[in-house]
Structures are given as C-alpha cells and as structure tokens.
Amino acid sequence: MENFKALKELILSLEKDANAFFTKGNKTAGTRLRIALQKSKSLAQDIRNEVSAKKNSK
Questions:
Q1: CA-to-CA distance for 18 and 55, rounded, in angstroms?
Q2: Which of 12, 18, 20, 32 has the fewest beta carbons under 10 Å from its own?
C-alpha cells in the first residue's frame, strides 16, 4: 500500500509541471515531467507485482 500512496502523491505533484509544459511551453518542466513519469511507471510496476504476489499467495 505504501507504493500506491507514493504513486498517488507523485501523480498529484506533476500537475504544476504538466501545466507549465503544455500551456507555457516550458521545456525544463517537460524534462521534470518525463523523469517523474518514468518513476511513476516503475512504481506502478512494483504495485502490480505486489498485487500479483498477494493474489497468488492465497
């Protein structure tokens, strides 16, 4: 559940950079956004693995 909370917080924190990149064309915000999205991909995979392990242990 910790990874899920971390993913949720990460996604919520991306709004400022997403807005700066898409509406203002701020390239640095785009870089920060891409890095954070890569981290979210990793967290999502960790959550998926946790769910599968828990499901298969029952």
A1: 35
A2: 12
pTM of the model: 0.83
Residue type, 56: N
Backbone torsion region of residue 4, taken as left when φ is above 0, otherwise alpha when ψ lies between -120 and 50, otherwise beta: alpha
Cα separation, 18 vs 12, whole angstroms: 11
Domain range annotation of the chain:
2-57
Tens place of pLDDT per residue across the chain (58 aa): 899 999 999 999 999 999 999 999 999 999 999 999 999 999 999 999 999 999 999 7
